[in-house]
Write a structure and sequence with these properties.
By secondary structure, the chain is of the alpha+beta class. The protein has five helices and four strands. The strands form two sheets. Strands 1-2 form a two-stranded parallel sheet.
Length: about 130
């Protein structure tokens, strides 16, 4: 009897956690950068799932578009500064484990950034409000 009670309680807590997660994501956007041109089929999101079940819209942007906007200064400088401040505060740049000869960048841009937070505090520069 106690076992059934615990299982029921676990399922109720799991349901509540899922409901909270979905309500937090609703009316937000998921941005996917670069997966279309690379052609990694497993990384392409199921847009219908995001729209119907999570209430989120999805956007896909090629990485060349990001580069173009940076080169032509087609971005909000204040938002850029906020994002860079958040990145410097929450991410650590580490050495690239790949050999230098396999890198197209050569000696420039050799770092790999890893997110050092694994919880809800790493929601982004705006605290997850976008």
């Amino acid at each position: 009897m106690i076992y059934l009670y615990r299982r029921m309680l676990q399922k109720l807590v799991l349901f509540a956690q899922c409901a909270l997660a979905v309500s937090t994501m609703r009316n937000k956007a998921y941005l996917s950068v670069g997966n279309v041109c690379v052609g990694i089929g497993a990384s392409i999101v199921d847009q219908e799932f995001f729209r119907c079940y999570l209430g989120m819209r999805t956007e896909t942007v090629d990485m060349s578009e990001v580069q173009r906007r940076l080169q032509l200064n087609l971005f909000d400088p204040n938002e850029y500064q906020r994002a860079m401040a958040w990145t410097k505060a929450n991410c650590t740049e580490m050495e690239d484990p790949n050999p230098l000869k396999s890198s197209k960048a050569g000696s420039k841009g050799r770092g790999v950034v890893y997110d050092r937070q694994n919880d809800a505090d790493s929601a982004g520069p705006d605290g997850g409000k976008s």
